Amino acid sequence: MGATKYEFYSDELINTADLLKAIAHPARLKALLIIANETDKDITIKDIAKEIKLSQSTLSVHLKQLHNSGLVKTAVINNESKCCKVFRVNKIAFTHLMNMLEHLLKKIELKNDDRYESFYHFYSKLKSVHNWNQCFES
User: Fold this and answer.
1) In the 8-state DSSP scheme, what is residue 9?
2) Which domain holds residue 31?
3) Contact, 23 vs 29, CB < 8 A?
4) Residue 107 lies in a domain
5) What is the pLDDT of residues 18-35, one digit of tens each?
6) Total tally of structural domains belonging to the chain
7) Residue 86 pLDDT
């Protein structure tokens, strides 16, 4: 049997990779945007399902992955005499990701070289995006 990732990498690196994997799906990324955009009320799975056209079971799996990675926090509240789970973005997880990205940005120094042209093409598509919510609208 081969070695596991836990034998080679630090816990911090594994946790960061888990955060990035959780974000790396369009449905989960859109759910994060929906949760983060609403600051005045608690977001339920029904609120998210209105904008993401997936079955409730599929959406629950995505939200569970966001919760397990630490990107969202959940609470159970009593709403109109029935309990429901609500979601909030976990600011600590995003602060961790921002710190890692800022560290990488400080270290990166790109050269003007023809070998990087394909990456420039990819970057130029991202550069034109100013409103991230617009990217995920159906």
Assistant:
1) S
2) 5-113
3) yes
4) yes
5) 999 999 999 999 999 999
6) 1
7) 92
